[in-house]
Structures are given as C-alpha cells and as structure tokens.
Design a protein that fits this description.
InterPro entries: P-loop_NTPase (IPR027417), Shikimate/glucono_kinase (IPR031322), Therm_gnt_kin (IPR006001). By secondary structure, the chain is of the alpha/beta class. It has one domain (8-174): P-loop containing nucleotide triphosphate hydrolases (Rossmann fold). The chain has helices spanning 8-19, 32-39, 46-60, 78-87, 100-108, 120-126, 145-156, and strands at residues 22-25, 69-72, 91-97, 136-140, 173-174. α1 (8-19) packs across α7. It binds adenosine-5'-triphosphate and D-gluconic acid.
Length: 175
C-alpha cells in the first residue's frame, strides 16, 4: 500500500517471486471510468473506489487464495484497508512510505502511465497512514527494492513481532 509511485508494483512483483505467492495488480481492477478519470487528472472518490475494493476483496478471500497472495493496492484510507481485512483476517499491509517530492518525481518520470502527476498531491491528502494498526510493516520506500523484499519476506516468515498471522496453514496475504 501507499501513494502512487511509492513502488507497489516493483516491490510486489519481486515479493511474489521470492515468496512463491500469486500476484495481483490492483490497478487492473479499476473500472474503465476510474482509469479515464485518473488519466484526466480527476481524483477518485470513495464511491469510485467501492466496487474496486469489492473486487480486490474477492481476490483475498480464503477460498480464492489457498496459497499466499501479494496484492498491490494504494489502500490510502483506513476504511479501505478494513474492507480488505474483512475478506482476509490474516491480511498484512506493507506501507511503502515516501514523501511528496520523491513520489512526484517518480510519477513524472514515468511517461505513458495512465496516472496523472497532477493527482499526486491528492494521494497525500487522502492518505491516512496506517499508524497503530495491527499487521502493518512500514518501510522507507527509498531503500533499494531488493532490501525491501528481504525485509518483507522476513516479516512474512515471522521475523518481526507485527507479522501477519495466518488463520490456517498455507494461507496468508499481503498488500
Ligand atoms: N525502491 C525504489 N527505489 C528506486 N526507484 C523505485 C523504487 N521502487 C520503485 N521505483 C521506481 O519508481 C517508479 C514507480 O514505481 P512503481 O510503479 O512500482 O510504483 P507504484 O506504487 O506501483 O505506482 P502506481 O501506483 O502509480 O502504479 C518506477 O519508475 C520504479 O522503477
Ligand atoms: O486509490 C487510488 O487513488 C488509486 O488506486 C491510485 O493510487 C492509482 O490507481 C495508482 O497509484 C496508480 O498509479
């Protein structure tokens, strides 16, 4: 989880590979109207995100994910995260923390991506950092991807006290 440009796709891809878990790219589940809005520099609303979160929740449901799942999702607000937790109680969140200037620089350096750099400020205005929430690993998103992946794999395997606890063997999730 985290704002646009924090590294969700890059880190998730490497994590899924390292863990041997399935990978889902949350952006692929936005409604076409939402993608068009973001392309036009119009921020999504709670209403725009409701159906999207429902679709992501279905990917995390225990019956849909007997093995572990890595899902990229901005999950900017507490209620969005709680919607996903409802679907998978063992869900853990990796919060890739990045400041505004760095996020803007990364998004501006990505020509061809649908997400308008004009929306980075709104991402920060919407973000409710997951401070104090259980099952959250917060990482400095400026660290090299390989270091971030090592930290996440260690966390998932129980190397940190706040690691997500699977509800049953061989099930789990991370966003
Ligand atoms: N740890 C990192 N260090 C340096 N550059 C990074 C790091 N992680 C990602 N990047 C670069 O930052 C840019 C954004 O990364 P990425 O697309 O993975 O972010 P994202 O959070 O998935 O963004 P979005 O949600 O907007 O799709 C890419 O150009 C990527 O190569
Ligand atoms: O909730 C949101 O506002 C969206 O999910 C965005 O975060 C973008 O889709 C993503 O970052 C792509 O760049």
């Amino acid at each position: 989880m985290g704002v646009s440009g924090c590294g969700k796709s890059s880190v998730a891809q490497a994590c899924a590979q390292a863990l041997g878990w399935a990978l889902h790219e949350g952006d692929a589940y936005h409604a076409p109207e939402s993608i068009a809005k973001m392309r036009a520099g119009i921020a999504l609303t709670d209403a725009d995100r409701t159906g999207w979160l429902d679709r992501l929740a279905a990917l995390l449901a225990p019956q849909a994910a007997p093995q572990g799942v890595v899902l990229t999702c901005s999950a900017l607000r507490r209620k969005y995260r709680d919607r996903l937790r409802q679907a998978q109680p063992a869900l853990g969140f990796v919060f890739l923390q990045l400041d505004f200037e760095a996020a803007l620089a990364r998004v501006q350096a990505r020509p061809g991506h649908f997400f308008s750099p004009a929306l980075v400020a709104d991402q920060f205005a919407t973000l409710e950092p997951p401070v104090g929430e259980p099952g959250v690993l917060t990482l400095d998103a400026t660290r090299p991807v390989s270091e971030l992946v090592d930290a996440i794999v260690q966390w998932v395997h129980g190397g940190a006290s706040t690691a997500p606890q699977p509800t049953e063997p061989a099930s789990g999730g991370a966003a």
